[in-house]
């Protein structure tokens, strides 16, 4: 078991979203493992680290992000501007189909 040190809490959520990556076409995805600085999602479209995209989730439009890692169809992205704490709380509580809670709390770590 490894101990990861993260800058901020991550939330176990299910957020329906979409993204555009410069081609102009939109692709539906489901976000998970959300933090103020990024998230994880799966998609059949494989994008390499460094690729830029724009997310839309709920009523939040145009969140610019960059792919930081990819493992098969799973991608990790970093938001170019961190989400404001109130926006993060809104997404976890009202946009997610599964109310988000910090993963450390769920695992009994905190």
Q: How many beta strands in the DSSP annotation? A: 6
Unreliable stretches? 104-110
In DSSP terms (H or I, runs of 4 or more residues), the helix count works out at 2
Structural class: mainly beta
How is the biggest beta sheet arranged?
A: 6 strands, antiparallel, barrel
The rough form would be described as globular
Could you report the average pLDDT, rounded to the nearest whole number?
82
Give the terminus-to-terminus CA distance: 16 Å
User: Could you tell me the radius of gyration in angstroms?
Assistant: 14 Å
Tell me the strand percentage band: 35-45%
Helix content: 10-25%
Task: For the largest sheet, list the strands in their spatial order.
Answer: 1-2-3-6-5-4
H/E series, N to C? EEEEEEHH
Break the fold down into its secondary structure elements and pairings:
Elements: E1 15-20, E2 26-35, E3 38-42, E4 52-57, E5 60-71, E6 74-79, H1 85-95, H2 103-106
Antiparallel strand pairs: 1-2, 1-4, 2-3, 3-6, 4-5, 5-6
């Amino acid at each position: 078991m490894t101990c990861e040190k993260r800058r901020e809490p991550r939330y176990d959520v299910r957020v329906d979203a979409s993204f555009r990556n410069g081609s102009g076409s939109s692709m539906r995805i489901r976000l998970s493992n959300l933090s103020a600085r990024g998230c994880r999602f799966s998609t059949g479209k494989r994008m390499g680290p460094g690729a830029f995209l724009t997310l839309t989730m709920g009523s939040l439009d145009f969140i610019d992000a960059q792919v930081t890692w990819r493992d098969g169809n799973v991608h990790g992205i970093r938001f170019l501007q961190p989400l404001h704490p109130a926006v993060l709380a809104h997404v976890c509580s009202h946009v997610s189909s599964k109310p988000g809670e910090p993963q450390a709390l769920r695992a009994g770590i905190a």
